[in-house]
Amino acid sequence: MKKTYKQTEATIPAMTPKKDIDSGLVKRSSPVSENLRRSCLKVVIALFLVEMMTGVLLMLYYAPAVQTAWGSVWHIQAQVPSGWLIRGLHHYASNVILVAVAFYAALLLFQKAYTGNHAWPWRMAWGLLLMTAALSLSGYLLPWDQWAYWGTQVRANILATTPYVGRTMRDLLLGPDGLGQASLTRFYTLHIVVLPCLFVLMLVGIVTSRRWNGRGQGRSMEASRDVSCCYGLVVGDVLLVAVFVAGVLAWTCYTHEVLGCTLLDAPADPTSSDYPARPEWYALFLYQWLKYFETPNAQIVGAIVVPTIAFVGIMLAPNFVKNTSHSVRHIIVVSTLAIGFSAAVALTVVAMQADRQPPDHAIDDVKRRDGEKQSLAASDKSILSAATYHEQRRWADWVAKRSFELANQHGIPVEGPLVMLARDPQIQGPKLFAAHCATCHRYDGHDGRGRVYDESATSSDLADFGSFERIRGFLREPMNPLYFGRMKKPDGEPAHTKMQRWLEERQEECESESQRNAFESELDDVAIFLASEAASLGDMATMNPSKNAPGRIPPVDEKEAIERGRRVFMSTCNECHTYQGQQSGTSKAPEMYAYASWRWIFDMISDPSHDSLYRARGREPAQMPSFQDTLSESDRRAIAVWLSGRRGP
Predict the structure, then answer these.
(1) Is 514 helix (H, G, I), strand (E, B) or coil?
(2) Which of 507, 513, 503, 483 is nearest to 495 (CA)?
(3) Mutual orientation of helices 120-140 and 195-207 as an angle, nearest 10°?
(4) Is residue 88 within 8 Å of 255, Cβ to Cβ?
């Protein structure tokens, strides 16, 4: 009997297939895939614990209100000791969890876990993937920055296209008043309570699903008695989790210390409708997919119908292939998911390629043909779209950087971060310049925010206005297109030609090379003199006399050069131009005291036809309209201070 018992015991493992530890399914794959699947779950559990711990620490400082959300996240990122590390771990761990859950679902596919009557782990794995994405999306809104605000707005608009229930679902998610305080409160509640609970339930369901399918018959008695094997598995699991956590930690430190990534955009501004919104990396394929559905009805199909059918098909795959043979059902499911995955990867690559910066010559060529009213191909339109995206992206990145600078320097007002931005001339100046001045002027060839217009400017380029290089260039060639060359009188004749005639007359009077050199040296001194006043008085407005000085004066004996320039100006230029109201001649030309300082620019914007400037009468009256009634005093001051400070994207 004893011998018979041993034989029976020895044959049990061979006669009865082993059960999967975490699913209860009949084992159909190699130990390698089994270990990989278990490892994925362990990584997910470990990183979710990291998410919970870092999330609790973030909650100690986060204030879920529209006026305080961005400021509290900035405080965590910039002021709290190691706050950037905690927030970075929380952010990047969520991305790794998403990848690990997706890999777990792929291993279930490889192990044919969708077959038979035990397909709950399959469904719960995909549900876990959906919950992971939902947790990430709900968390992205909480900083209440531009990227979060406009990304959520786009997703909410897509949700609203769902037939019959779309608007109700959007109002339930965002609140009846649209994206605002109610939305932030609801997303915060979803992110810290509802979605984590659902995530844990699905995770527990996957881990304990073997109990729904039986107690794991047929486990190897020998393996269960091997204590050293258990210790080895525990040590391996600890090392695996440690490697992943250390990797997330290292990546967080690298992005912060080397790349300077703050994971925070500028404060959310509902009025900036030109923000270049893009989805998260894992949803980029959906963004590209929707480009192929232009009409409203087609967008419903692309955004709602097709994704819903695909997800339902994945969840019900065990039912669809229930009555087919094992090999046929595996081919059907694998080929379908492989096609879908390949399409998602291809769409992601296409979306990334579409946003690449086109070469300058390609942009210029397309804009030229577009200006000539030639028909543009789809590739040409994509070049224009990519160029516009990068112009908007550069401006958005600069505003985000400037927001951090302002918060670090002056703190955040009680009214909220948008008030901080509204008070800053370096942000409002370019915006107002683009809206009111760029129809005629340019700033280094663009509109002040990086956008290059197809139409040519009709007036001067104001980049580095008041710098030595600009003043000296003007004194060398006044009718250059950068200065007066594009300006026309109402009859179409060139405007403001007096300076050009005076320069030509003085050059003709120089009979020798030494006289010409002396004349050029005098112009150098005048440029140094005028630039010195623009620098000193311009810095008083920006409250930063060291960093915002316009184009530093050449490194020579500045005091002597400035004094020589003053003497030349008062003896020569003062015949036409006034200086503090004083003039030695009778010709009328603009006042040059504090030329190009914020005060001079402010007066020019307010009333260029004033008697101290270009006047409203005479042979060459002011060509520029007055903005005194069009722009408020604060707006005019913002443009003037920005131009005098010469800072921007």
Answers:
(1) helix
(2) 483
(3) 160
(4) yes
**Which amino acid, residue 244?**
F
CATH number of 16-269: 1.20.810.10
Residue 555: both structure tokens together = 């490194």
- Asked if residues 35 and 42 have their Cβ atoms less than 8 Å apart, the reply is no
Angle value at C-alpha 352, between 349 and 357, nearest 5 degrees: 140
Distance, in Å, from the CA atom of 344 to the CA atom of 327, rounded to the nearest integer, reads: 26
Tokens of 7: 């034989």
Residue 519: count other Cβ atoms within 10 Å of its Cβ: 16
Q: How far apart are CA 241 and CA 74, in angstroms?
A: 30
Question: Residue 432 to residues 447, 460, 512, 630, 637: CA-CA distances in angstroms?
Answer: 10, 17, 49, 11, 11
Instruction: Tell me how crowded residue 299 is: count the other CB atoms within 10 A of its CB.
Output: 16
DSSP per-residue string spanning 308-323: HHHHHHHHTHHHHTTT
Give the bridge partners for 577, in sequence order: 589
Hey, what are 51's tokens? 């998410």
Q: How many CB atoms lie within 10 A of CB 7?
A: 9
Q: Among 529, 525, 645, which Cα is nearest to 594's?
A: 529
What is the residue-wise DSSP string for 610-637? STTTT-SSSSS---SPP-TTTS-HHHHH
* Burial (0-12, 13-18, 19+ Cβ within 10 Å), 498: middle
| C-alpha neighbours within 13 Å on the C-beta side of residue 570 | 10
Tell which residue, 164, 145, 179, has the closest CA to residue 262.
145
CA distance 567 to 561: 10
Q: Which residues contact 521 (CB under 8 A, 6 or more apart)?
A: none
- Joined tokens for residue 481: 């297109």
Q: Take residue 528 and report the two structure tokens written for it.
A: 């140094």
Q: Could you tell me the mean pLDDT of each successive run of 10 residues in the chain, 649 residues long?
A: 44 43 44 74 92 96 94 95 95 94 85 67 86 92 94 89 87 89 95 94 80 42 48 71 92 93 93 87 88 82 85 75 63 81 91 90 84 82 89 91 92 91 91 91 89 84 89 92 88 86 90 90 91 64 36 58 90 89 82 89 92 80 87 92 72
Largest CA distance in the chain: 132
For residue 71, give the 3-state DSSP assignment.
helix
DSSP letters for 86-150:
HHHHHHHHHHHHHHHHHHHHHHHHHTTTTSTT--HHHHHHHHHHHHHHHHHHHHHTTT-BHHHHH
Q: Give 313: exposed, middle or buried? Use CB within 10 Å, 0-12, 13-18, 19+.
A: middle
**Dihedral sign of CA atoms 329, 331, 332, 334 in order:** positive
Torsions phi, psi for 322 (to 5 deg): -65, -40
Q: How many Å apart are CA 17 and CA 263, to the nearest integer?
A: 50
Which spans in 321-377 are helix H?
326-354, 360-371
The pTM for the full model equals: 0.80
Kindly give, in sequence order, each residue whose CB lies less than 8 Å from that of residue 71, ignoring residues fewer than 6 positions away: 63, 407, 412, 416, 417
CA distance readout (Å), 316 to 27, 115, 210, 311: 22, 11, 20, 9
What CA–CA distance (Å, rounded) separates 417 from 588? 47
What are the residue ranges spanned by the domains of the chain? Answer: 16-269, 360-423, 468-645
